[in-house]
Amino acid sequence: MAPQSATMKSKEEWMEKFSKPEVISGSEILLRSLLLEGVDCVFGYPGGAVLYIYDAMHDNPDFNHLLTRHEQGAIHAADGYARASGKVGVCIATSGPGATNLVTGIATAYMDSVPLVVITGNVMSTLIGTDAFQEADITGITMPITKHSYLVRNVEDLPRVIHEAFHIANTGRKGPVLIDIPKDVSAAKTLFKPVSEVSIRGYNPTVAPNKLQVEKMIKAIGEAKRPIILAGGGVVYSGAHEELLEFVTKTQIPITTTLLGLGGFPSGNELWLGMPGMHGTYTANNSLQQADLLINIGARFDDRVTGKLSGFAPLAKIVHIDIDPAEIGKNVPTDIPIVGDVKTVLQAANKLAERAEGADEWRAQLAASKKQYPFSYKDSEHELKPQWVVEMIHETTNGDAIVTTDVGQHQMWAAQYYPFNQPRSWVTSGGLGTMGFGFPSAIGAQMANPDRLVVSINGDGGMQMCAQELAICAINNIPVKVVILNNQVLGMVRQWQELIHENRFSHIDLAGSPDFVKLAEAYGVRGFRAANKEEARTAWEEAMNHPGPAVVEFVVRRDENVYPMVAQGSTIDQMIMGDAE
Asked: Does the pLDDT value for residue 82 go beyond 60?
């Protein structure tokens, strides 16, 4: 695969290398500052407003840049890199259309609290506001979907701005930060002095919790008969998976994890009830509705989890732990708010945590329900079922792969039938639900984890939105295994049109899509196709054994639905069970 920077150094080594004051260009300052932040891979696409920046990369052995084939591919790859590594993802694009092509990816990262530093070029400072060629007010356009943004007017500010951007992106509630650099600023020269300190007035996220609030939670656990934990992406982002396991082990409280929380708690643990929400498990959904104490740890009470808000968790006292105080009470009234970093809060709670003694009957009830109502589907010997394909992939990878998905039915089947036991192994677009995300995010995940198997599960719709990135897999030998569950239809839209709109199927037919095997081969990537179980096992084995990238198209049943399903406007215990009924 594409090599990581051959001259990877620690921040201290970079500081020593760049310690001698030099007059250099803004572009060189940018590259040096990124190296000082520990950046080992940048995804991007050049253009006129960033030509000085790309010129500074020329013959620079210290800097590792991956040229994608679309700016959206670049930012989704940076996003996948960040989710799979815990580091800040970085991408670069030119002004105007280059910058606006990043907007969907910025919104994706913002909704899911992913740390990115997004660098855009702009027209010369003297032309800003004149409707110059390829000018766009990208800081204005992205204001609602960035954590913070900068328009750099003076080259002297660049070292400070870049250092601040990384600090803001990766602290508190994480998110994307945009740095817009006019062309004359990237060309201007000044004396470069590395920045190692950061002080931002008004930005001081609360990390340590109020001890009294933690004590209130512990007291509530002691009084509860039916406690439940709802753990979200905040557990993964704060690196709190070990603390969460300790908390659950000590309290013996059953736990459910959201879509973005998958992997934050081991799926093999007997107290794990699965994923809740629109396509969650029967037991997880009912546990939330019957609980008398609900402890939300790093989740934001998304509507896909809560269903009808007025009917959500009607019997429960609500504890909400979150780094972002704006989330607490936003959707669900909270009885015990705890503001702080999830890892720090759980460390404090674990010093006091004891077994929830009054919940023995509750644990037994949920264990029996979990056994009685697993995810299920009607298998077939005559056609490939997508659920079976995901189960086969889980079996053959021992559940140890990093799995990325696009958005739609295949995303839910992957969440349901590929259980995770470690964090940062699941990369998917949650809040925004971005089609086209799955494949390029796998490239970023692979760059961040060159020694791990990365499997990208896609539908035939989403795959066509960023299929051009197959080129960089081939050129750089990035060994992502691309799975396409091809049902020749926009599956989730078709499912809703069947169940909610009385079989009025409107503009969902994807017939005429390319031959994905030939498409892969056109880019220089090995391609395989399977239409039955025997072919599926053979094709997948060959793809797994192939040392480079591979695409495997599984031709699956067109009319398969994702169950359970909670229709909009229903409470989450009002599930359509489908094949499980």
From this structure: yes
DSSP letters along 350-402, please?
Answer: HTT----GGGHHHHHHHHHHHHHS-------SSSB-HHHHHHHHHHHTTT-SE
Q: Per-residue pLDDT tens for 190-217?
A: 999 988 899 899 999 999 999 999 999 9
- Cβ(134)–Cβ(123) under 8 Å? yes
Per-residue CA distances from 312 to 134, 194, 432, 571, 574 (Å) = 48, 51, 22, 6, 11
* Cβ atoms of 43 and 441 closer than 8 Å: no
How far apart CA 491 and CA 458 sit, in angstroms, is 12
**Tokens standing for 13?**
């080594």
Measured from the Cβ of residue 357, the count of other Cβ atoms closer than 10 Å reads 11
Phi-psi region of 254 (alpha: psi -120 to 50; beta: other; left: phi over 0): beta
Give the pair of three-digit tokens for residue 259: 């879509």
Pick the CATH number of 386-562 from 3.40.50.970, 3.40.190.10, 3.55.10.10, 1.20.210.10: 3.40.50.970
pTM as predicted: 0.96
Q: Which helix (H) or strand (E) holds 80?
A: helix 71-85
Q: What percent of the chain has pLDDT over 70?
A: 98
Q: What is the pLDDT of residue 5?
A: 39
Q: Where are the domains of the chain?
A: 11-192, 211-372, 386-562
Dihedral sign (CA 277, 340, 103, 31): negative
Same fold, 11-192 and 386-562: yes
Number of other residues whose CB lies within 10 A of the CB of residue 507: 7
* Cβ-contact 457, 394 below 8 angstroms: no
Q: Tens of pLDDT along 113-123?
A: 999 999 999 99
The CATH-assigned architecture of domain 11-192 is 3-Layer(aba) Sandwich (3.40)
Annotate 472-518 with three-state secondary structure: HHHHHCCCCEEEEEECCECHHHHHHHHHCCCCCCCCCECCCCCCHHH
| Torsion angle in degrees (nearest 10) through CA of 264, 267, 272, 273 | 110
In CATH, the architecture of 211-372 is: 3-Layer(aba) Sandwich (3.40)
List, for residues 557-575, the tens digit of each pLDDT value: 999 999 999 998 999 999 9
Q: Which two tokens stand for residue 262?
A: 């998958």
186 vs 195: CA distance, rounded Å = 18
Tokens standing for 312?
């959500």
**pLDDT, tens digit, 9 for 90 and up, residues 375-405:** 999 999 889 999 999 999 999 999 999 999 9
Nearest Cα to 543, choosing from 513, 523, 522, 520?
A: 520
The model's confidence at residue 20, banded by pLDDT at 50, 70 and 90, is confident
Which helix H or strand E contains 43, and what residues bound it?
strand 42-45
Give the per-residue pLDDT at 9. Answer: 78
By annotation, the residues acting in catalysis are 71, 133-134, 183, 492
Say what the pLDDT of residue 378 is.
94
Cβ atoms within 10 Å of 295's Cβ, excluding its own: 27
User: What's the alpha-carbon Rg for the chain, to the nearest Å?
Assistant: 24
Q: Which helix (H) or strand (E) holds 266?
A: none
Element (H or E) spanning 65, and its range?
Answer: strand 65-67
